[in-house]
Design goal:
This protein is of the alpha/beta class. It contains eleven helices and 15 strands. The strands form three sheets. The chain has a six-stranded antiparallel beta sheet with strand order 2-1-4-5-6-7, covered by helices on one side. A six-stranded mixed beta sheet has the order 8-12-13-3-14-15, with helices on both faces. A three-stranded antiparallel beta sheet has the order 9-10-11. Helix 5 crosses helix 8 and helix 6 crosses helix 7.
């Protein structure tokens, strides 16, 4: 008995010294009346899966289905009925997945309302879904995180944080509802001469939610900063220094309440709340220059890649498992050097790649699926 115990202890020490890479993966996707899929089940491999076919055949629909089961909503539309096949009244997406400690199933039904089931049990709140399947998605329009409006950068943060802190999305939803109520009352003050002192009720609630959201965002900006410097240096062969600067008016509750009071007259004139976490933003600098203003498109794409790879590593550090990588026609947007840098980071993870033409990934094993008119017609 003593010898057996010593042997077990020795094996445990060896395992601790070894770096064990854990990854979650989607085993299968069942689609019924989802977009252009009538009734299809797709079995996926644990590592790299390449889905290819001509445009408008249903490749991105597979990515969207996985995103839907992870986040409870689409990245392509706010109108859920658009995901239902035009000739049908409802649709179903069902995913079987595996993590290091368990297996699971997520089912989402879309009709006049949305129903979500985890292991056949209907959930009441979206926060119960968040974090079951973690994803990082790469899309061609992700360059808008750098080039586009602040809402694109906030959305990047919101997607990442909500997967790791499910209560964040609930707090964000409460904040947005309070903003809507405050904006409605601002218009009533302007148009109906309502008592503007009543705004203090909404201001107090708004400040409480704003400070919580700001705390979450600052926490994760800090985590990204810790990762992105090293990643970006590797991608650019030490030629570029990257820095992220987060801008917010909501780091202190009293200061934010004073700001709301100072801008009250302006808010009434405009009919909306001009300051808050719904206006937060972050800037990216390359070699001390604002990337959005002074960066080339190549630099902006490289920074986008660095940002996404940082997200990948933050999630891994948080939960001890690599998330699923969804690359929706993203490889075609990268030149040879950036593609090679991405490939270095996709080993030992489940990756789902969509592309119009077959691609060759040297020294990597992968499965290929040819999609045509909402059907998998060939799997290798």
């Amino acid at each position: 008995m003593k010898k057996r115990w010593k042997k077990k202890l020795k094996n445990d020490i060896v395992l601790k010294k070894q770096k064990v890479v854990r990854t979650m993966w989607v085993k299968s996707i069942k689609l019924k009346n989802f977009r252009n899929y009538k009734n299809e089940k797709i079995e996926l491999g644990e590592n790299i899966n390449i889905i290819y076919g001509e445009n408008a055949q249903g490749k991105t629909n597979i990515i969207e289905a996985i995103f839907l089961c992870s986040m409870g909503k689409s990245f392509r539309t706010k109108k859920e009925k658009e995901m239902i096949n035009l000739k049908e009244e409802n649709c179903l997406v069902e995913i079987e997945y595996e993590k290091s400690d368990r297996e699971g199933k997520i089912k989402i039904e879309l009709a006049s309302k949305k129903n979500i089931y985890i292991n056949n049990i209907k959930i009441k709140k979206l926060s119960e879904l968040l974090g079951k399947i973690n994803i990082v998605i790469f899309k061609p329009d992700d360059i808008n995180i750098i080039q586009g409006d602040p809402q694109n950068r906030r959305r990047f943060l919101d997607i990442m944080i909500s997967q790791l802190r499910p209560t964040y999305m609930h707090t964000l939803s409460l904040y947005q509802k309070t903003i809507e109520q405050r904006n409605n009352y601002l218009k009533q003050i302007r148009e109906e001469n309502k008592d503007e002192n009543m705004l203090e009720i909404w201001d107090e609630k708004l400040a409480d939610y704003a400070i919580k959201i700001n705390k979450y965002r600052n926490e994760f900006i800090k985590k990204i900063k810790e990762k992105i410097v090293k990643i970006h240096k590797e991608i650019t062969n030490d030629k570029e220094e990257i820095e992220i600067i987060y801008n917010s008016d909501c780091e202190n509750k009293d200061n934010y309440l004073n700001l709301l009071k100072q801008r009250r007259k302006l808010d009434i004139i405009k009919g909306f709340t001009t300051k808050g976490v719904h206006r937060d933003d972050f800037e990216i600098e390359i070699n001390n220059k604002n990337l959005k203003i002074y960066g080339s498109q190549g630099q902006q794409r490289t920074a986008t890649l660095s940002l996404k790879l940082s997200e990948l590593n933050v999630i891994y550090e948080e939960i001890g498992e690599y998330p699923i990588l969804l690359l929706d026609d993203f490889m075609s947007e990268l030149d040879k050097t950036r593609r090679e840098n991405l490939i270095k980071n996709i080993k030992e993870k489940q990756v789902i790649i969509t592309c119009t033409d077959q691609i060759v990934l040297e020294n990597l094993e992968y499965l290929e699926y040819n999609v045509k008119e909402g059907k998998i017609i060939n799997k290798k």
